Amino acid sequence: MATINENYMKLQGSYLFAEIARRVAAYKEANPSADIIRLGIGDVTQPLPAVCIEAMHKAVDEMGKAETFRGYGPEQGYSFLTEAIIKNNYTDRGISIASDEIFVSDGSKSDSGNIQEIFGTDNRVAITDPVYPVYLDTNVMAGRTGDIKEDGHFEGITYLPCTAENSFAPDLPKEKVDIIYLCCPNNPTGTTLSREELTKWVNYAKKNDSVILFDAAYAAYITEKNIPRSIYEIHGAKDVAIEFRSFSKTAGFTGTRCGYTIVPKSVMGRTKDGSRVEFNKLWNRRHTTKFNGTAYVVQRAAAAIYTEEGKRQVKELIAYYMENARIIREGLQNVNIKAYGGINAPYIWLKTPHGMSSWDFFDKLLHEANIVGTPGAGFGPCGEGYFRLTSFGSRENTERAVARFAKLKF
Ligand code: MLT
Description:
By secondary structure, the protein is α/β, with parallel strands linked by helices. It has helices at residues 16-30, 50-63, 79-90, 108-114, 133-141, 195-208, 248-251, 279-290, 296-303, 308-334, 358-369, 395-407, and strands spanning 37-38, 102-105, 125-129, 157-161, 179-183, 211-215, 241-246, 259-262, 268-270, 276-278, 339-341, 347-351, 371-372, 374-375, 386-390.
């Protein structure tokens, strides 16, 4: 009989959002008439920008004619898209990224989950706590951890606590780590790291020969001028950081799927015998072996957001969700619930009232207000006592949810 990857047995229950979906489905079955408002998983609700739809229609027509039909495309992405990304998100911001340092994919979840494959299993990994579960779970699956301990932490991982006490900005690890996951703007806390904080991390990585895996999936939501949109705005980051970006939250592509990863050629690792190797070469090898490119139609839609009209439509979409964030944040403050985030990110991270556990709060919200959110503990032990709401709902549902909050008794 075939044996299994034993590392999977170390994982706890189901993937967080699958577990939430399961609980909500059970509640709905028992209460079929419940009018549930979903502010749990960070899934967008508004239609794709019109420019994307037009570009997709045109691309579909091209696929219907032999002269313009496309089969396999470049695994790394068509140049019409990669050039538009590089110009708009990097060159225009004074950052130089070469055309062979960008890899278009089907989204940041896959990339931030798969990237660990090009690192040795003996690397010491640091992750924030709370954290987007993909970073931790994929390292558990790969065998880079021991078992889970009683405190909910895995052996062999360096956790970087992020709580209200440190303003959700993690301290540098006491021991030397090789791989550091940073998500900014942060999922789940909705907070950001300042230029000074990011500089501290880049300097640490340079000093310790570590690599920063920087998830900037929510960069488009930054409203404050002084917050870096890319880690490459920090001097020296191109030597130590890999950056993930996504069209999911930027332009409503959660169901359409498109993202990209920047792997600068200057980011190096070493072999057992001490030679230095570009991670870019390894990622290119992996990408070309395991991935056959994002659909042409989807890449056309993604490229459309970089037209003048596309930029205007994306701005409008993001403003819509950020207005929801303001409504939630202020609505919570009005009922004396302490809320963080929601200024540079579409997530609001609230402190559960009266020290309630985050799963108890989840149940109370679901049962008494028919609102679904995400328990902070699902993102790690330091998320206990917190709860996440997303601003990706419709305006109507956001306002209804806030009104229901106001009626809750704690
Ligand atoms: C979340 O809710 O944390 C995100 O939507 C999950 C994701 O982007 O994969």
